């Protein structure tokens, strides 16, 4: 262990170091910020994330393993980290006014988000089951607390408690799988595990271990049969946190799933049949149950389950296009979902919660511009061209058909028709009902910027997908 | 070609929509929309003027890479099959603007924007030479059409809009899977011309044929997936009905002509009897349903199902007369049915009822209106001298050559159409003035005349001198037949 090698290791993890240092400083200094000067916290947090983003971009283009096979900085990790930064910064932007209205805008809020970001970054870079575990736990511990951040609301408390208990169980299952793997192969590193099983029929105990690990990971992305926490947590958590959780931690979960599934161990175990079943069940459940939701956040929760299902189809497809399609899906989903959540968050003003879908009746009459944006996000979520949502689905379907899973592609496509129904139902409420009230959306410049940015992404990736496609393909193939 | 004419044609309405967004006065919005419509129609006429009728090759071709990694290009071009539809779309788009001049009195700007975007997408569908691009245009149409029906429609508009949206989406999503399968079968390209040149195994062709059939049959619509159409037509505003009947329905048939026949020739031949029978069913069933309607719009809507049956009959007759007849008949149907919906809309604006039973003796109150109504009714019945006669005659002669039973059913359908159309006309125009028609009905005004006249001109022009229209499609249809049957079996 030379000093140079150590320096190399540190260098590979500079973005993580920036975030952890920044978060710790903010934790201490943040308490000194006087009430009413909360925007300082916001801008400091944004600055930390941007700094980390710059560091990440400077590391891009080279594969840097570090910490004795626990950690790697490759283009795959870089891509996911950029998605996390995007989601986190936009969440900060959306939080400013909302946190003030709800009275939660203290420094812990921002610090916890930063630590959650750190956890996700570690997950994206982890190539050892133990470092995956560390990142995963860091992330979920922060989101447990953030979910319960509306301390005076029972709904929020209940959601946090549910989340903690179910989350702990799933973590235990995951850890048990890891211990089985270690017992059977003597390692927890993803690539060494693969070597240990190459050749020969698969040990049934290993299969069991794989199932446990899959189950633990599936919980994090909210797929069937471990989806029960999603609607309650999404409904109870502060809306900004819901927006964040529906995008970033989900992407982190997929990063890990892709890393694990790139692994020959899983390919050898025929686990894709399980995963295909999970994908179908997840998408079907999300789509059908969303049909009957009246609460906007609950509907978006089920919608996010359905979208997770669609992305899992990309995992089933596997191969380079399959991986790239999942990554593109997550990027596009980040834009459109943060957009629609931005619209919901903006509606929270005064006594108006903006959580009931019928409350949006006739919104288009008073705010045609904002209504048009919501229309854009909703049609994108439904997967109608020329929006980005269509291209995301299209690429997953291409990956499926390429591998010969035409029947699965048909199922995925038909289920997405059902999902389209509840999105266009919201469009109907916004455009085709008579207004019953006037609206006073909390349109701060930051919210405006977020909406504009996500809208540009949603329509821009749809019209000019070439560059983004190349980006994910490089990230998937090069990593 | 240095000027990208087709791109201009497609994107002029988009530019118009973008301009409208910044306007405030409703009148300015109407005039601007009209202006852009006229420019677009003029561009289409320029295109037709420069159109070479001697070749079946794609003309005015533009191509640039769009998503290179997946072999997707932005490619536009027209041949004899699509050229007429571009013109028809631009013409009906213009007429839709005129038809909504006073009928749409709220959210005028949003309506005109939707209408122009719709027009651009429809034009795009007819120009696209890349399957992915085609699909984007095809599917994106759902958004403006959903809004046009759902926001500006009648009483049951929300239900109708949902039904339209979900039916069409469910149909086209299978088409999408078919497209992707075709992409991998045909050497990882979405280029329509390259895919046409492929020779796919029959098994693959069969699957794809049915995947495509679902999408196109919903759009046409063919029995039994026609039930969205009466709802959508009845609830849509006049302009929406004109666009739906005039252009949207043609897209399904255009899909058969552009994809099913040339790309899946063996499957098309193999299943042609099935398609002929489905078409015959649509002709007779649509006619019977139309016979039973009291609502004017519903009557025209069901007659559309019947008339589109003629179109698919002609297509799957798979001979020269059938194909040329059906393409011409699509053009005719766009003109005539567009006009009939316009007429229903005009009278509805005055009386606010569409029930045939409430009308009578309109001839006295509005002689010009009834005179033109007579012209279009007769055209819809395919009376000699009108446009539909030429088309229907060709289709029938092609149909009889292909399948006696289907041809006979078509004749029955033609008789039915005479029955319901003459019955409708008799009750509305002739007889004693009815009770509810006692309030003063104005005859057509200048603006309405401007919408009616071009349609009337085409009714007579195609009816009396169809040669220029057949000339445009001839070379491409002959080439299509060669693609289906192989060399030498043209007739």
TrEMBL record, chain A:
Q: What does the record say about its membrane topology?
A: Multi-pass membrane protein
Where does the NADH:quinone oxidoreductase/Mrp antiporter transmembrane domain lie?
126-418
Asked if the keyword Cell membrane belongs to this entry, the reply reads: yes
Q: Which InterPro entries match?
A: NADH-Q_OxRdtase_suN/2, ND/Mrp_TM
Q: Where in the cell is it found?
A: Cell membrane; Endomembrane system; Membrane
* Pfam families recorded: Proton_antipo_M
Describe the reaction catalysed, as an equation.
Answer: a quinone + NADH + 5 H(+)(in) = a quinol + NAD(+) + 4 H(+)(out)
What EC number(s) does this enzyme carry?
A: 7.1.1.-
Q: Give the main localization category.
A: membrane
Q: How does this protein assemble?
A: NDH-1 is composed of 14 different subunits. Subunits NuoA, H, J, K, L, M, N constitute the membrane sector of the complex.
The entry's function note states: NDH-1 shuttles electrons from NADH, via FMN and iron-sulfur (Fe-S) centers, to quinones in the respiratory chain. The immediate electron acceptor for the enzyme in this species is believed to be ubiquinone. Couples the redox reaction to proton translocation (for every two electrons transferred, four hydrogen ions are translocated across the cytoplasmic membrane), and thus conserves the redox energy in a proton gradient.
Q: What is this protein called?
A: NADH-quinone oxidoreductase subunit N
- Origin species: Sinorhizobium medicae
Q: Provide the gene name from the record.
A: nuoN
């Amino acid at each position: 262990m030379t000093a140079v090698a150590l320096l190399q290791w540190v260098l590979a993890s500079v973005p993580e170091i920036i975030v952890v240092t920044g978060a710790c400083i903010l934790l201490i200094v943040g308490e000194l910020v006087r009430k009413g000067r909360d925007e300082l916290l916001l801008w400091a947090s944004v600055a930390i994330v941007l700094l980390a983003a710059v560091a990440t971009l400077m590391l891009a283009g080279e594969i840097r393993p570090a910490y004795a096979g626990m950690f790697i900085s490759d283009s795959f990790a870089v891509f996911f980290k950029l998605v996390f930064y995007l989601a986190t910064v936009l969440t900060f932007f959306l939080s400013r006014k909302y946190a003030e209205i709800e009275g939660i805008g203290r420094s812990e809020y921002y610090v916890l988000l930063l630590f959650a970001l750190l956890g996700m970054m570690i997950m994206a870079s982890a190539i050892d089951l133990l470092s995956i575990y560390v990142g995963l736990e860091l992330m979920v511990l922060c989101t447990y607390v953030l979910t319960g951040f509306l301390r005076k609301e029972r709904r929020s408390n209940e959601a946090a408690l549910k989340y903690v208990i179910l989350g702990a169980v799933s973590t235990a299952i995951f850890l048990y799988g890891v211990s089985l793997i270690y017992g059977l192969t003597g390692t927890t590193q993803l690539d060494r595990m693969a070597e240990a099983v190459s050749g020969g029929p698969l040990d049934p105990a290993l299969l069991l271990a794989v199932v446990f690990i899959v189950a633990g990971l599936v919980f994090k992305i909210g797929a069937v049969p471990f989806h029960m926490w999603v609607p309650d947590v999404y409904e109870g958590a502060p809306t900004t946190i819901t927006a964040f959780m529906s995008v970033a931690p989900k992407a982190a979960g997929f990063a890990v799933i892709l890393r694990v599934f790139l692994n020959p161990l899983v390919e050898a175990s025929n686990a894709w049949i399980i995963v295909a079943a999970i994908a179908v069940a997840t998408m079907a459940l999300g789509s059908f149950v969303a049909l009957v939701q009246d609460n906007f956040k609950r509907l978006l929760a089920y919608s996010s389950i359905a979208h997770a299902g669609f992305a899992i189809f990309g995992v089933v497809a596997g191969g380079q296009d399959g991986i790239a399609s999942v990554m593109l899906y997550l990027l596009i989903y980040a834009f459109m979902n943060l957009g629609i959540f931005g619209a919901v968050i903006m509606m929270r003003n005064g006594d108006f919660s903006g959580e009931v879908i019928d409350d949006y009746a006739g919104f288009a009459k008073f705010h045609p511009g904002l209504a048009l944006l919501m229309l854009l996000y909703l049609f994108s979520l439904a997967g109608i061209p020329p929006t980005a949502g269509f291209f995301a689905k299209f690429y997953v379907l291409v990956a499926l058909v390429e591998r010969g899973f035409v029947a699965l592609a048909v199922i995925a496509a038909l289920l997405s028709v059902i999902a389209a129904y509840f999105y266009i139902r919201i469009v109907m409420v916004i455009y085709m009902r008579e207004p019953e009230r006037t609206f006073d959306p909390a349109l701060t410049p930051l919210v405006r910027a977020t909406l504009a940015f996500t809208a540009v992404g949603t329509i821009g990736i749809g019209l000019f997908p070439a560059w983004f496609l190349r980006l994910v393909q490089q990230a998937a193939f090069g990593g | 070609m240095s000027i990208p004419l087709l791109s201009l044609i497609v994107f002029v309405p988009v530019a118009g929509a973008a301009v409208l967004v910044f306007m405030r006065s409703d009148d300015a919005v109407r005039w601007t929309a009209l202006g852009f419509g006229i420019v677009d129609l003029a561009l289409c006429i320029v295109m037709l003027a420069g159109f070479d009728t001697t070749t079946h090759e794609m003309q005015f071709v533009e191509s640039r890479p769009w998503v290179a990694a997946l072999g997707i290009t932005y490619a536009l071009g027209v041949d004899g099959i699509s050229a007429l539809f571009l013109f028809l779309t631009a013409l009906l788009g213009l007429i839709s603007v005129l038809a909504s001049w006073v009928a749409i009195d709220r959210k005028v700007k949003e309506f005109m924007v939707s209408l122009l975007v719709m027009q651009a997408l429809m034009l795009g569908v007819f120009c696209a030479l890349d399957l992915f691009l085609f699909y984007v245009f095809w599917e994106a149409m759902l958004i403006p059409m959903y809004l046009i029906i759902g926001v500006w429609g009648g009483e049951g508009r929300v239900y109708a809009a949902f039904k339209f949206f979900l039916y069409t989406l469910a149909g086209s999503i299978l088409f999408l899977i078919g497209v992707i399968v075709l992409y991998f079968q045909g050497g990882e390209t979405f280029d329509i011309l390259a895919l046409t040149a492929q020779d796919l195994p029959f098994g693959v062709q069969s699957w794809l044929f049915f995947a495509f059939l679902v999408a196109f049959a919903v759009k046409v619509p063919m029995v039994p997936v026609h039930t969205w159409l009466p709802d959508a037509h009845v609830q849509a505003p006049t302009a929406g009905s004109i666009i739906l009947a005039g252009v949207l329905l043609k897209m399904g048939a255009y899909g058969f002509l552009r994809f099913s026949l040339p790309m899946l020739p063996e499957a098309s031949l193999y299943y042609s009897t099935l398609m002929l029978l489905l078409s015959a069913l649509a002709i007779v069933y649509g006619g019977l349903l139309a016979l039973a309607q009291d609502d004017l719009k519903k009557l025209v809507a069901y007659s559309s199902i019947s008339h589109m049956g003629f179109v698919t009959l002609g297509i799957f007759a798979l001979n020269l007369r059938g194909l040329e007849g059906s393409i011409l008949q699509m053009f005719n149907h766009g003109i005539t049915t567009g006009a009939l919906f316009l007429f229903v809309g005009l009278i509805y604006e005055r009386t606010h009822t569409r029930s045939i039973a409430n009308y009578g003796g309109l001839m006295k109150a509005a002689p010009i209106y009834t005179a033109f109504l007579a012209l279009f009714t007769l055209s819809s019945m395919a009376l000699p001298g009108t446009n539909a006669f030429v088309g229907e005659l060709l289709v029938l002669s092609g149909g009889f050559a292909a399948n006696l039973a289907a041809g006979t059913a078509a004749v029955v359908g033609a008789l039915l159409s005479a029955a319901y159309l003459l019955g409708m006309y008799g009750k509305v125009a002739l007889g004693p003035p009815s009770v509810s028609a006692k309030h003063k009905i104005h005859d057509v005004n200048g603006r309405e005349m401007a919408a009616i006249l071009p349609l009337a001109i085409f009714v007579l022009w195609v009816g009396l001198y169809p040669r220029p229209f057949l000339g445009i499609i001839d070379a491409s249809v002959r080439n299509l037949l060669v693609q289906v049957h192989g060399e030498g079996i043209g007739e």
